[in-house]
Amino acid sequence: MGCLEPEAGASARTGSGHALRGNGESDKSSEPTDYSIDKHCQDILAVANTCGIERFLIWGFSYGGNIGRYLAARSPRVASFIMIGVMFGLGASGDFRQWIIQSRDHWLPLLQAQTDGKLDIRSLSQQDQDLLYGENQRLHTDGIWR
Questions:
Q1: Which of 77, 36, 43 has the alpha carbon at shortest distance from 58?
Q2: N or C, fewer C-beta in 10 Å, the chain?
Q3: Rounded mean pLDDT, 66-86
Q4: Residue 53 maps to which CATH number?
Q5: Distance from C-alpha of 17 to C-alpha of 101, rounded to nearest angstrom
């Protein structure tokens, strides 16, 4: 998720990290409702309570950024919020949203083939090979990139 830091001047504490439930060493529930926005927000507030922090600064990356924006909108305890690298979801529209959908539709089957051990790199277009391995490397006939 990121870090909870006391509001400026509130304390000498430097902060506390928090991994979202299901990550790190936390339990891995199979119940989807255990991963709701509300549950994640409750977890973050519980960490702040345990640390004795009334108002705090918070930053979140990717899905943690999404959780953080909900918490910042809902809780007066969040003094400031920084969102880094959040998933787009319904926040993207128009041509940009179409580009995201096309990219997803293009890459998901390739990622699945790689996961299944069935991806033949040589079957990819040169453009896809360049994106994956860099324009300065080529797959040689011996199967080695250089």
A1: 77
A2: C
A3: 85
A4: 3.40.50.1820
A5: 33
Q: Is the pLDDT of residue 77 over 90?
A: yes
Asked if residue 44 has pLDDT above 70, the reply is yes
Q: Are 56 and 77 contacting, i.e. CB atoms less than 8 angstroms apart?
A: yes
Report which residue type is found at 3. Answer: C
Report the distance separating Cα 110 and Cα 128, nearest Å: 10
Do both 23 and 44 map to the same domain? yes
Looking at the structure, do residues 64 and 107 belong to the same domain, yes or no?
no
Find the domain containing 60 and state its range: 2-87
Contact criterion met (CB below 8 Å) for 38 and 62? no
Cβ atoms 121, 139 nearer than 8 A: yes
How far apart CA 64 and CA 84 sit, in angstroms, is: 9
